[in-house]
Amino acid sequence: MKCKICETESFSVLYHGRIRTGGFGNLSDEKQTVFCCESCGAGFLPDAGFDYEDREYREAVDGAADVRLFQGLYDGEQVEKLTVTGSEGYRNAIIADIGCGGGSFLDFVSGVAGETIAVEPCESFQIKLAEKHNVYSYVREALVLWAGKVDLAVSFAVMEHVDDPLLFLQEIRQLIKPGGKVLISTPNYDDWLLKFLPDIYESFFYRQAHQWYFNGRSIQKLANYAGFKSVELVYKNRFDLSNTLHWLRDHRPTGIGKTETFTEMDCSYKSLLERSGKADFIYAWLTV
Ligand SMILES: [Zn+2]
Predict the structure, then answer these.
(1) What is the 3-state secondary structure (H, E, C) of 9-41?
(2) How far is the CA of 212 from the centre of ligand 1 (A)?
(3) Whole-structure pTM value
(4) Fold for the domain defined by 51-192+220-287
(5) What is the distance in A from the centroid of ligand 1 to the CA of 189?
(6) Where are the domains of the chain?
(7) CA of 96 to the centre of ligand 1 (A)
(8) Cα of 118 from ligand 1 centre, angstroms
(9) What digits encode the pLDDT tens for the residues 93-128?
């Protein structure tokens, strides 16, 4: 076995056990091994993945491959992305969203953007996306018209799904114009809950859909291999103290705000994790 990112052949074990195969509670019958490249630090699950052109993945994760359902589930998450990007830089700009799903993020910015490019392989989303955006299944198809023209390319929680994250970022890099930016995000395998609650949280965190697992250091290395010189990491803890307390008590995710007793402490809780790199999620700004 050779790391697809750095070609190293030595691996340690990041996780060995049953993994999530869909929503919470759906676990693999067999134990699986997530390997960790000893050079670049990327985690890798062999035999992972879904056919993302088919409805299968969305049905496994969301219950159905339907744009309305997607919007209901994910519109609420778009505020967090805008807190990372700010609202400047979109006016008259060319914005691409790689792996955009039902297009929630592009819908929010398209009011001020000049052009929006939706890259999404799931065919059942494409007809709806095409009503508002330029639609492509893959970045290599978008490159024909948009290479070197894009101001901002975003890709939220996608690179952990792809077969070859190095090629994925190299292709995205070709989309952006000189001075343009890329913003990617992915779950963080340095998430403190993985160390604190390994028995109940690891089999939720590691999942069939995610072929790759990253922390700050491995994103940095991957981005450098892909030709980005500057990498700025932004850690975000998406889930609150209430969610953690419920994991402890109920051994399951409950989402955000289930108990409001400790809401005032959320700011400190999140900022501590974000400053120490142990937050559950990582954004990375990449520039050439
Ligand atoms: Zn590697």
Answers:
(1) CCEEEEEEECCECCCCCCECCCCEEEEEECCCC
(2) 11
(3) 0.95
(4) Rossmann fold (3.40.50)
(5) 15
(6) 51-192+220-287
(7) 27
(8) 29
(9) 999 999 999 999 999 999 999 999 999 999 999 999
